[in-house]
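Quiz preparation item.
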């Protein structure tokens, strides 16, 4: 009887150890599942925040293009500065690369860089308001964007505009022709989530012999004053997903 009692206690001890092992495994599996769920939730939240930053950057591109073409708010508008045959308000070749200053009506207008200079979109910290180079959303159009609360962007998006020489095959303009490169940055709920977009825009300008409007397909109407039909409005766009890395690399080379 005494031997049988000891055997029973041994069996009970083995069973208890097995149960404890299974409980430990179950706890580990539950912890792993919880950790996976947390990571997936964070990834989904970051993706939603990136989408918000992307939408804000696109809104800034559109705001800049409205600034160029025809801003609806006349007291704020500077659309008359932008023309295909002149560069009013843009820095001259011997001046700083961009106009700056929150009180400057030419803020955010940048000339084309020389061969020894980096382009304005790369040489400027787009996310730094203190540099006062980029233009806050709505400054020259009167548009507004709610920010800083709930699921809204932490900060208004910003943009800058560079003027570029427009060389069209088949055309023989009497004076230089220009179009614009717009670079915009948008922010998510977390201001560290940033998206930078860039578009290229040709303004419809009757003063330069270019049709004053484009058709629904984005192409200019026919005219006898140019030898090639020019596409007007937004010519294309891209996301600068590695903007920060490119800028950091540029700064490292300068140092």
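Solution:
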């Amino acid at each position: 009887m005494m031997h049988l009692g000891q055997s029973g206690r041994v069996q009970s001890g083995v069973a208890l150890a097995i149960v404890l092992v299974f409980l430990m495994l179950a706890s580990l599996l539950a912890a792993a599942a919880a950790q996976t769920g947390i990571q997936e939730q964070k990834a989904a939240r970051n993706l939603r925040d990136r989408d918000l930053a992307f939408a804000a950057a696109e809104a800034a591109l559109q705001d800049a293009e409205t600034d160029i073409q025809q801003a609806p708010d006349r007291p704020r508008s500077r659309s008359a500065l932008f023309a295909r045959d002149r560069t009013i308000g843009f820095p001259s070749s011997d001046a700083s690369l961009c106009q700056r200053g929150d009180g400057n009506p030419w803020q955010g207008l940048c000339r084309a860089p020389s061969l020894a200079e980096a382009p304005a979109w790369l040489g400027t910290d787009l996310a730094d308001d203190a540099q006062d180079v980029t233009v806050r959303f709505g400054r020259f159009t009167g548009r507004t964007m709610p920010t800083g609360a709930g699921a809204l962007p932490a900060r208004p998006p910003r943009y800058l505009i560079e003027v570029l020489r427009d060389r069209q095959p088949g055309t023989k303009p009497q004076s230089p022709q220009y179009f614009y490169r717009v670079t915009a940055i948008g922010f998510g709920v977390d201001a560290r989530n940033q998206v930078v977009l860039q578009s290229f825009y040709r303004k419809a300008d009757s003063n330069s012999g270019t049709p004053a409007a484009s058709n629904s397909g984005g192409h200019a109407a026919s005219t006898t004053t140019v030898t090639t039909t020019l596409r007007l409005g937004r010519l294309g766009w891209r996301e600068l997903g590695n903007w920060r890395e490119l800028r950091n690399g540029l700064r490292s080379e300068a140092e």
